[in-house]
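Cross-posting from the chemistry board since nobody answered there.

I work mostly on the small-molecule side, so proteins are not my area. We synthesized 2-oxoglutaric acid and want a rough idea of how it might sit in this target. Sequence and SMILES are below. Is it possible to get a predicted 3D structure of the two together?
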Amino acid sequence: MSGPLKLKRESDPVNDPDPEIGTAEKPKKVVALNLDNGSLISHMPNFISYKESWQYFDYLDKNIPWTRPTIRVFARSHVQPRDTCYIASPGLPQLGYSGYKPHAYSWDEFPPLKDILDLIHKAIPGSSFNSLLLNRYKGGNDYVGWHADDEKLYGPTPQIASVSFGCERDFLLKKKPNRNSQDEMTSRNESEPPRKRSKKVNNVDQHSFLLKHGSLLVMSGYTQRDWVHSVPKRVKAESVRINLTFRKIL
Ligand SMILES: O=C(O)CCC(=O)C(=O)O
Ligand SMILES: [Fe+2]
């Protein structure tokens, strides 16, 4: 299990800085959310400066070999509702989800990704990510359905570091109903998100983060075992968002 999560800041937080004009010297605010039973979320809204984040966005938008694969969910085929790409260090076991096994590109082909990886390793002491799943949401109709990144190859307490560029989108977390009824929640639901379930959801059982341009969100501990997350459709989100989730295959 990864140790207690402590994101390093460049200086102590003072006033909440203007999100529109990022600078490298800006103090880094960190919000830590301790979910129950050892699930942890840390959020650093200004992880990478505004200007640098647009440079990364433009590079990734143009240079990543994006694909929109067909995946299988609940025994039905769907086109994944967002573009994707996968990077992994050599010699790791093959990632597979929803019947899809992405080709693993090398970090060496995309030097800016190595720079972001370095920034993340510096921000999260003790981390050593070796793979990366990239997503590109072309507009508000693109989304990721409720799922947990609980594939066995990440181990029982995966730490996942998520960096976002471009259009701001909501990132939702919801507690899994209970340990015996996880089946319908744990596979990536890429079909329309289910309509409201009849069971009432407690306020402490769901959380929402607005993931801004240049932000970092880290999920640790038992978050993947006990919670599901999603980035739902948003009609008003018209522009492109690129998200990077760094993971460690054990
Ligand atoms: O786009 C995001 O913020 C989340 C993506 C995600 O959950 C995933 O790729 O597993
Ligand atoms: Fe995920």
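Reply from a structural biologist on the board:
Welcome over. Reading the output above for you: The domain at 41-247 is CATH 2.60.120.590 (Jelly Rolls). The chain has a mean pLDDT of 86. Happy to explain the token format if needed.
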